[in-house]
């Protein structure tokens, strides 16, 4: 059913219009009105599909009816049907929105015109609904959807509201100022955007914008060019996506990969260096024992041992950094750690930093990996150094919390301090204020992980111009009366096979064991060791082997020998290890690991524990 509103002062003409549409096969219901009030009432009262209006009306002008209809529903077709009207008037009405003009003496044209206009009205409504749906989608999309006219005059024809969340500027600002979108781009990237928008294939482009707040925003453009009749671009349209977070995560990934590579390099260097330190430490211990405490060179020999021990501590820090060193908690005197760190930091921080310690007496011991604790203190001290570029004071303070009994370490500086927003993010991984290439943002994040793993807490207090205080609180160690595990084995003998590819380490281990009364045979590699063991006259009570060796790992060697000698006692040596060794073999649960470099007593004690 088609609802037709006829605006005419002659009822007969309205009837003729209805008959004309019916004879053409249309099912219509005709309503006639002749005043402006009647038209408004008809439009409000019920559905109206088409309006057919006469021009010569005593009570209302056709132009006014058309205006009423446009205000009510611009998609309803308006057709002018009149007996006498000038061509100029008809053209003006068509320009104003009338869809067609039919003379009353040619009503045969009316039905096709009504059918055509109803079809076009339906298509307009569907197009508008689709357009509204797309606009709604664009307005709620996180990406910026835009269309920018290049010629004849540059203008932003459309930009979705998401542009405000990225740039801080509302869409209206881009409409009013077409050049704004270019001014927001970083100067180095602006030529890239301009060339892209003048190209017939703008494609994908990543550029940097500057938000209203001054912060940078990385934006990915995916656009297409709209070409004119001459084939040159007249407009650019597409999407702009905020990829700032993705760029930040990719940078963190690259940073992590660089750290991983550096860590692997550090681990390899530390492994080789530990072999050297094992030789130095071993020969130093033998010299100390041979010379005796009354010899004039005894102090020099002890100094060699102490230097090797300090070198071992440095390599352990490298291994901790590389993630290849397992944690080794031990009872610690926090005052002793602070005192040792004071000597190290005095040389590290520079003469313009006044370093002092305020140590509380009778501190209970704590349980923690010493090197990790030293790493925390070193990171905090280097942060303090950066906050005092012109010099200042750094203070290490130890105390005991009365309410919890925890042992506390405070690291205080009188540097520039931090804004509240910076201080609140200090423990976030990769967060740094030192600028590109000057800091990883891992120092305090690592410290947080180390302290919390030890059952403690770490906090930071800072204010601009008032310096920074890092507070570490650790639980006291559980004191238990346990016999020392460091016990020399009496010289009762025993047959030991030593497998070590480093000549110096192999030599010193063999000499230590022979001096302790063991019968020792040595092999420079696992292949030689296997060949020796296949001899029928070869006998051994225990295997002492390095882990990292060419051709076969120590764990693989031990597994191979235990096939023929189940339960063979094994003592492993290594500069580092964590989890699976090369070859995929895990360290056996009954085979301890002796970390290089080691003291003579540590080697003999470990061997004593595995001997049958």
UniProtKB/TrEMBL annotation:
Residue span(s) of domain PAS: 130-195
Residue stretches making up the PAC domain: 203-255
Histidine kinase domain location: 268-478
Modified residues annotated as 4-aspartylphosphate in this record: 54, 546
Keyword set, alphabetical order: ATP-binding, Kinase, Nucleotide-binding, Phosphoprotein, Transferase, Two-component regulatory system
Chemical reaction(s) catalysed: ATP + protein L-histidine = ADP + protein N-phospho-L-histidine
Coiled coil: none
Subcellular location: Cell membrane
Family matches, as SUPFAM superfamilies: ATPase domain of HSP90 chaperone/DNA topoisomerase II/histidine kinase (SSF55874), CheY-like (SSF52172), Homodimeric domain of signal transducing histidine kinase (SSF47384), PYP-like sensor domain (PAS domain) (SSF55785)
Keyword Hydrolase set for record: no
Residues annotated as domain Response regulatory: 3-119, 495-611
Keyword Transferase listed: yes
EC code: 2.7.13.3
Extent of the signal sequence: none
Stated name of the protein: histidine kinase
Organism whose genome encodes this protein: Paractinoplanes lichenicola
């Amino acid at each position: 059913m088609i609802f037709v509103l006829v605006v005419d002062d002659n009822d007969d003409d309205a009837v003729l219009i209805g008959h004309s549409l019916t004879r053409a096969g249309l099912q219509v219901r005709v309503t006639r009105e002749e005043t402006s009030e009647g038209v408004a009432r008809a439009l409000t009262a019920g559905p109206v599909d088409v309006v057919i209006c006469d021009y010569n009306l005593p009570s209302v002008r056709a132009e006014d009816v058309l205006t009423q209809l446009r205000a009510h529903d611009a998609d309803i077709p308006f057709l002018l049907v009149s007996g006498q009207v000038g061509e100029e008037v008809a053209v003006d009405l068509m320009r104003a929105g009338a869809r067609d003009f039919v003379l009353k003496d040619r009503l045969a044209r009316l039905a096709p015109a009504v059918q055509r206009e109803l079809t076009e009205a339906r298509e307009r409504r569907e197009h508008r609904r689709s357009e509204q749906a797309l606009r709604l989608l664009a307005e709620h999309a996180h990406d910026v959807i835009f269309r920018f006219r290049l010629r004849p005059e540059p203008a932003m024809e459309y930009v979705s509201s998401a542009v405000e969340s990225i740039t801080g500027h509302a869409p209206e600002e881009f409409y009013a100022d077409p050049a704004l979108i270019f001014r927001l781009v970083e100067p180095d990237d602006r030529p890239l955007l301009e060339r892209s928008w003048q190209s017939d294939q703008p494609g994908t482009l990543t550029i940097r914008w500057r938000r209203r707040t001054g912060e940078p925003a990385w934006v990915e453009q995916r656009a297409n060019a709209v070409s004119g009749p001459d084939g040159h671009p007249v407009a650019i349209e597409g999407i702009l996506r905020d990829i700032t977070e993705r760029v930040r995560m990719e940078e963190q990934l690259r940073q992590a990969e660089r750290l991983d590579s550096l860590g692997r390099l550090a681990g390899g260097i530390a492994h080789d260096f530990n072999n050297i330190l094992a030789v130095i430490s071993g020969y130093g211990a033998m010299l100390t024992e041979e010379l005796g405490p009354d010899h004039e060179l005894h102090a020099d020999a002890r100094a060699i041992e102490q230097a090797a021990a300090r070198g071992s501590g440095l390599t352990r820090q490298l291994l901790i950094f590389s993630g290849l060193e397992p944690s080794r908690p031990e009872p610690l005197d926090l005052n002793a750690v602070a005192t040792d760190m004071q000597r190290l930091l005095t040389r590290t921080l520079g003469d313009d930093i006044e370093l002092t310690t305020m140590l509380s007496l009778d501190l209970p011991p704590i349980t923690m990996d010493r090197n990790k604790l030293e790493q925390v203190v070193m990171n905090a001290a280097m942060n303090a150094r950066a906050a005092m570029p012109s010099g200042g004071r750094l203070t290490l303070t130890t105390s005991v919390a009365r309410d919890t009994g925890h042992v506390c370490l405070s690291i205080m500086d009188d540097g520039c301090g931090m804004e509240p927003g910076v201080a609140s993010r200090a423990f976030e991984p990769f967060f740094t204020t030192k600028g590109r290439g000057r800091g990883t943002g891992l120092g305090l994040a690592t410290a947080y992980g180390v302290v919390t793993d030890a059952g403690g807490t770490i906090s930071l207090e800072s204010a601009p111009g008032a310096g920074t205080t890092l507070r570490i609180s650790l639980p006291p160690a559980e004191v238990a009366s346990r016999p020392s595990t460091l016990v020399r084995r009496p010289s009762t003998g025993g047959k030991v096979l030593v497998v070590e590819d480093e000549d110096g380490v192999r030599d010193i281990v063999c000499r230590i064991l022979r001096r302790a009364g063991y019968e020792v045979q040595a092999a420079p590699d696992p292949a030689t060791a296997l060949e020796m063991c296949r001899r029928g006259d070869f006998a051994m009570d225990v295997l002492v082997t390095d882990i990292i060796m060419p051709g076969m790992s120590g764990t693989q060697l031990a597994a191979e020998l235990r096939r023929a000698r189940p339960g063979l006692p094994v003592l492993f040596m290594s500069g580092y290890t964590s989890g699976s060794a090369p070859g995929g073999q895990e360290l056996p649960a009954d085979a301890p690991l002796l970390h290089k470099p080691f003291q003579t007593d540590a080697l003999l004690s470990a061997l004593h524990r595995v001997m049958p």
